[in-house]
């Protein structure tokens, strides 16, 4: 059983910074892609960033240059550092794990709230 547990969300003023992390446990395939998604009230969940086992990263245009995704494979943890936050970044942030055999994420965390005040 794979479990993902996010932590680190909170309230921050616009222009500020916040980091969230996701600890992964269980029977994890060594080759996988970790990702962060977010869902704002009344909106669909959207992809934010992803990182492969080898460290290659991709970002949504809306966060490129402001957010940084990283991972610690030894400790099965993925991070999302968020800088220059905007009120429109307010959402519940979810981490995901996509095993190499799957085209879509198979495992999700419970989410952590990030609120950016104007």
Characteristic terms for this protein:
11 strands; 118 residues; seven-stranded mixed β-sheet; globular; 0% helix; mainly beta
Radius of gyration: 13 Å
Q: Detail the poorly predicted runs.
A: none
Strand content: over 45%
- Bulk shape: globular
Entry summary:
The chain has 118 residues and is mostly beta strands. 0% of the residues lie in helices and 54% in strands.
Explain this structure to me?
The protein is mostly beta strands. It is 0% helix and 54% strand. It is built from no helices and eleven strands. The strands form two sheets. Strands 2, 4, 5, 6, 9, 10 and 11 form a seven-stranded mixed β-sheet that branches. Strands 1-3-8-7 form a four-stranded antiparallel β-sheet, with no helix packed on it. The chain starts with a strand and ends with a strand.
Topology:
Layout (H helix, E strand, L loop, with lengths): L2 E5 L2 E4 L4 E8 L6 E8 L6 E7 L4 E3 L7 E6 L4 E6 L8 E9 L7 E2 L3 E6 L1
Parallel strand pairs: 2-11
Antiparallel strand pairs: 1-3, 3-8, 4-5, 4-9, 5-6, 7-8, 9-10, 9-11
